[in-house]
Amino acid sequence: MFLRRHRKRAGGELYEYWSLVKTVRTAKGPRHQIVAHVGKLDDATIQSAHQWSDLDALLEGRVPATQLELGQPPPPPPAPWWRSVDLRGLRVERLRQFGRVYLGLALWRRLGLHTLLKKLLPAGAEDVGWDLIACVLTLGRFAAQPSELALAERWYDDTALEDLLGVPLAQINDARLYRGLDALLPHKDALCAQLLEKYRDWFGVKFEFLLYDVTSSYFEGLAEKNKKAAHGHSRDSRPDCKQVCIGLVVTPEGLPIAYEVFAGNRADVTTLEDIVKLMEEKYGQAQRIWVLDRGIVSEENLAWLRARGASYLVGTPKSQLRAHEAALLEEADWQTVQDGLKVKLVTVTEGELTERFVLCRSEARAAKETAMLQQKLTRLRAELTKLDAALQKRPTRKVEPVERRIGRWLGRYPAAAAVLQVELKKDAAGRASGLSVSEQSEKLRWARHAHGAYLLRTNHPGSEPTEFWRWYIQLTQAEAAFRTAKSDLGLRPIFHQKTERVEAHILVCFLALALWRSLEQWLRTKGLGDCARQLLLELDELRSLDVVLPTVEGPEVRLRVVARPEKLLAQLLAHLGLELPRVPKIVEHLRNVVPKNGPSKTQAVANQRSVSPD
């Protein structure tokens, strides 16, 4: 589900509002359906005036407030400051990105990563703490920066992180960021444990189900100093580049909890044991259900899981459907999961082993696969007909080129070739003189019955096939996590060459993925859908800026402010409970100028906090 902005004009006035929309499948294709309209908030709820000094409380979700004792009156508002400003010289400077980094920093702090890393990386002789460098690295990846060099040379100066973190631009350089990667890597396990704990506290996530999948990420360069870099099956369509494989464990909500980096030529099926042992060493050998894609499944893996007392739910190759042909063709005992989708449970016992197979049949998928097969049959028949006509017109003794041509067309359309039988006809002189093409009726009949059907396999003692299907469909959360990491966070390509630097880079990507998926879960709990991309695009328009006021007295006053979000964005932030600093931060101001009502304690403190001009 995602948020959609609406605008309409009625009675000469423009009305804007948000609606929550989901995509549904229909007979005419995918359509958008409005689930709900996001309720409006009054101006008093949206408008709040907090100072830059309240940043810690704002980012961590604590409302800044002054604790008053019983009977104590509230403090008076600060005395106004009066200045005579020459409006002809008023200008705006240092326009910088604020929204995305502010939200990323809020997620970082609400996950407690700032306090954990402060303990794990105690202050030493360095000018900037490694915990802050780790935060900068993660926020840079959260904003899809391609490299540490781009982060240091351009991105950091274009954002408001200097104000939010208090780390000067001069202290951010590529060498310091590389050393930050080295300092962060040894604490991978502690970071994963922290995320697990925060998921429980913040979202109430449980861990009975774990979803596991594998992806790859390729290198730019030879990666000769990386022990795990190797050529292998590339999911990025870059077989020319070396790669590493990454196994990721997520919750059914899509929240990442652990990962492991494998050699680039490692087969997916060989990674499962390492991941399961890793999870059991960290979190105990609990009765979890592992939901796995068919590419990770082998009979040896399933036997190993059964021996450890683990439950599994896995996809199976379509070839195994044939063993359950009778149950598939039988019309009894099917249960409807949703419109156009039915499931049936088949229990199979062999010796002491009892497994359950869930037959799934989708009408929409069947129609699609039938149409695709028919299209391929039509195209293959057309090419074979052309070849047949050419051979009849001009027979040839060169049989091998004709056979290669037939094989080329059959290889281009393997699904159609599987149900056709093609023979090369020869005349009395041994010349190729035509083709004989016929349908294999039994194979074609089975192909049409199998369209839209797929098979799940489990050793769980449950008896509800609809429940098994819902568990398995959650595996799309792991696939969505990989899509987010690659497309939105820029996991690929990898520019680092050393083994440890590459693993540190992937750790930073993992932390950025945790921020992204936590944001999606945060939106979901607030009834705002689960598409973080729309919110981040809106926040990209939110900037911080310096308003420079030339005064009649001489010196200029520089005020650092956050642009006021438009009303629709302010509503979204209010629904999330995320507040912005609204009172200007005085970067430069006049000295020796007394306010109209006399100096106040607040002004004296402001004078002490003033910083030098940029």
Percent in strands: 15-25%
Helix content: 40-55%
Number of helices: 22
Specify Rg, calculated over alpha carbons: 31 Å
What's the rounded overall pLDDT mean? 85
Poorly predicted regions are: 590-614
Arrangement of strands in the largest sheet: 7-6-5-8-9-15-12-11-10
> How far do the termini sit from each other?
43 Å
Structural class: alpha+beta
Number of strands: 18
Largest sheet: 9 strands, mixed
Descriptive overview:
The protein is α+β, with helices and mostly antiparallel strands. Among the domains are: 1-39; 41-63 and 77-95 and 543-614, no CATH class; 319-461, no CATH class. The chain has 22 helices and 18 strands. The protein has helices spanning 43-46, 55-59, 99-110, 113-120, 130-142, 148-158, 161-165, 174-184, 188-203, 272-283, 299-307, 325-329, 363-393, 399-412, 414-417, 441-450, 465-473, 476-488, 499-525, 532-539, 567-576, 601-609, and strands spanning 2-10, 13-26, 29-37, 91-97, 209-218, 243-250, 256-263, 289-292, 311-315, 335-338, 341-350, 353-362, 420-426, 432-439, 453-458, 543-550, 556-562, 585-588. A hairpin with a 2-residue loop joins strand 10 (335-338) and strand 11. The longest helix has 31 residues, at 363-393. The model is unreliable at 590-614 (pLDDT under 50).
Draw up the topology in text.
Elements: E1 2-10, E2 13-26, E3 29-37, H1 43-46, H2 55-59, E4 91-97, H3 99-110, H4 113-120, H5 130-142, H6 148-158, H7 161-165, H8 174-184, H9 188-203, E5 209-218, E6 243-250, E7 256-263, H10 272-283, E8 289-292, H11 299-307, E9 311-315, H12 325-329, E10 335-338, E11 341-350, E12 353-362, H13 363-393, H14 399-412, H15 414-417, E13 420-426, E14 432-439, H16 441-450, E15 453-458, H17 465-473, H18 476-488, H19 499-525, H20 532-539, E16 543-550, E17 556-562, H21 567-576, E18 585-588, H22 601-609
Parallel strand pairs: 5-8, 8-9
Antiparallel strand pairs: 1-2, 2-3, 4-16, 5-6, 6-7, 9-15, 10-11, 11-12, 12-15, 13-14, 16-17, 17-18
Helix pairs in contact: 3-5, 4-5, 5-8, 5-19, 8-19, 9-19
